[in-house]
Amino acid sequence: MNKITIAIDGLSSTGKSTVAKQIANHLGYVYVDSGAMYRAITFYAMQNGLISDDDFNKEALIYQLPKINISFKFNENLGFAEVYLNEENIEKQIRTLEVSSFVSKVAAVSEVREQLVKQQQKMGENKGVVMDGRDIGTVVFPKAELKIFMTASAETRAQRRYEELIERGDDVDYNAVLKNVQERDYIDSNRKDSPLIKADDAIEINNSNLSLQEQFDKILQLVKMTIENCE
Ligand code: DC
Description:
binds 2'-deoxycytidine-5'-monophosphate; alpha/beta; 19% strand; 10 strands; globular; Rossmann fold
């Protein structure tokens, strides 16, 4: 059976990674969370004093980019690949609200995008990949056989993110999470380099009222149709 490339883009907290992982596991494809790579660089910048509440030393980050090595290693127990920064597992550290609140600024830096896009394209060169992000169908894999664009209301997304953070034991406020979701929507959609836009040939799925199972079934059906059409 032919392997295809599946690009899943959309606003933050639309559940892209959940369904992307399910689809990749079902098909035996590689799953790549491209957002984790932007988060890893943000975490590096925070750890190295390049970013704080009112200051972002963009030039220093650009200068240090060659020193930043991001990789993924599959965790058998979790069933997905965790992200490593210079050989340190930082999967947990990159999911905090603090990283979320700075990541859009880092993701707007063209030099950061250039480095990560190259790495992402390399990861997908043999197809059989499901990658989620903001520019996968438009910039990283413009020729992907299947492109999905996921949407849901800001409130629905904030509620999901809030529940995830609470479950992890983080002490967060729903309104702060909603504000972060809205701010990231704005920055991600309005940045100059590779803004979040739906590719012309992407299929839009609004999952505000879909259960995880319904969403998985719907996307799997699209995958099967696409694979059949490619044969
Ligand atoms: O998917 P996520 O919320 O983990 O992504 C974190 C941030 O990274 C998001 O605010 C936008 C940015 N991002 C991006 O610009 N391009 C991608 N392909 C993936 C994420």
